[in-house]
Amino acid sequence: MSSKTTTATTPQNENSLGSSIILFVLMMALFAGSLYSLSFLTLGNPWPMAACLILFALAFWIPQTVTGRSDSAGEF
After folding, report:
1. SS3 state at 45
2. Is residue 2 over pLDDT 90?
3. What value, to the nearest 5°, has the Cα angle with vertex 33 and ends 28 and 37?
4. How far apart are CA 12 and CA 1, in angstroms?
5. Backbone phi, then psi, for 38, in 5-degree steps?
6. Which of the 8 DSSP states describes residue 18?
7. Is residue 52 within 8 Å of residue 35, measured between CB atoms?
8. What is the pLDDT of residues 6-60, one digit of tens each?
9. Cβ distance 31 to 56 under 8 Å?
10. Which stretch of DSSP H or E encloses residue 14?
């Protein structure tokens, strides 16, 4: 009988724990900022809603495109 030893390898494009935590904190700050901007929303001032939409979109766009994790679904 032959025994094969297999070792688990991580992909080369996997983030380290420290960079993942930093990215998470930054994206949550963007998301929290978008929610906080809604506290200044009035019918006469549309700019807080514009800031909310921009910050909310950035909180999802940056991890999906800039950090390159949008194509990680097919790795497994």
Report:
1. strand
2. no
3. 155
4. 33
5. -70, -20
6. H
7. yes
8. 665 555 656 678 888 888 899 999 999 999 999 999 999 999 999 999 999 999 8
9. yes
10. none
